């Protein structure tokens, strides 16, 4: 309606005084380091590399499966997010979009990528279907989940703090993106940096991870400790 007013289609929006219902923000689903490792251990080599990249860059599945070899800058240990794999094919993000971004690569992730792409053409997709050891077709999200991701997640397990073996949470591939952000925030990386790494258009999207910051409740706990006479329960 606002766009219709801007385009002079209508004079006044009939929705101008209507408050939209609040959207409940779900806490992000993320894996611990042990859980992520157990998933990697269940994957074939090519998909190990893809998911390693997902955990350490925060690229969405469409960005991972839409990545081209020439977008990887080996000399600077960077990759450039430009294309995304969609149901209707590979598309470029608009040049004005924050989704277009430069992402740093840890050394061990770059090494895994180099091993994966050393026989691929410069303009080839990095990750495709595999047919007799050769690169194949553009990946399909539903097929990849069904044939690769869910079998690995279902087979993966880890040991909890009590030494008990536990199944890995049944989270979708998008949780690799949440996992990357969660790990970084827990290690003290600012929400501003995480926003730009993940290409979030709105800072509100990134604030979902604020509770994971090491000093998230430091001010509150400090205030309680400074109380002159704290409440006590008599023994």
Query: Helix segment count?
Result: 10
**Rg, nearest Å:** 22 Å
Specify the structural class: alpha+beta
Low-confidence stretches: none
Helix and strand succession?
A: HHHHEEEEEHEEHEEHHHH
The overall pLDDT, averaged over residues, is 91
**What would you call the shape?**
globular
What is the number of strand segments? Answer: 9
CATH topology: hpI Integrase, Chain A
Strand content: 5-15%
CATH homologous superfamily designation: Intergrase catalytic core
Q: Give the tally of structural domains.
A: 1
As laid out across the biggest beta sheet, the strand order is 1-2-5
What's the CATH class, please? Mainly Alpha
Proper CATH architecture: Orthogonal Bundle
User: How is the biggest beta sheet arranged?
Assistant: 3 strands, antiparallel
CA(first)-CA(last) distance: 64 Å
Helix content: 25-40%
């Amino acid at each position: 309606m606002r766009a219709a007013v801007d385009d002079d289609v209508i004079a006044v929006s009939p929705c101008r005084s209507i408050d939209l219902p609040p959207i409940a923000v779900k806490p992000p689903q993320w894996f611990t380091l042990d859980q992520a490792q157990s998933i990697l251990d269940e994957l074939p080599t090519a998909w190990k590399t893809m998911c390693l990249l997902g955990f350490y860059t925060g690229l969405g599945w469409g960005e991972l499966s839409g990545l081209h070899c020439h977008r990887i800058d080996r000399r600077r240990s960077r990759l450039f997010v430009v294309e995304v794999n969609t149901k209707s094919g590979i598309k470029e993000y608009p040049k004005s979009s924050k989704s277009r971004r430069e992402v740093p690569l840890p050394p061990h992730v770059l090494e895994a990528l180099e091993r994966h792409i050393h026989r691929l053409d410069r303009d080839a997709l990095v990750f495709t279907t595999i047919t007799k050891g050769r690169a194949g077709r553009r990946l399909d999200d539903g097929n990849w989940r069904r044939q690769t991701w869910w079998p690995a997640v279902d087979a993966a397990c880890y040991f909890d703090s009590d030494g008990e073996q536990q199944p890995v949470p049944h989270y979708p591939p998008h949780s690799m993106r949440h996992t990357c952000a969660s790990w970084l925030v827990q290690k003290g990386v600012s929400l501003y940096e995480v926003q730009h790494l993940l290409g979030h258009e709105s800072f509100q999207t990134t604030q979902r991870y604020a509770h994971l910051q090491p000093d998230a409740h430091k001010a509150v706990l400090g205030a309680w400790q400074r109380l002159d006479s704290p409440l006590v329960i008599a023994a």
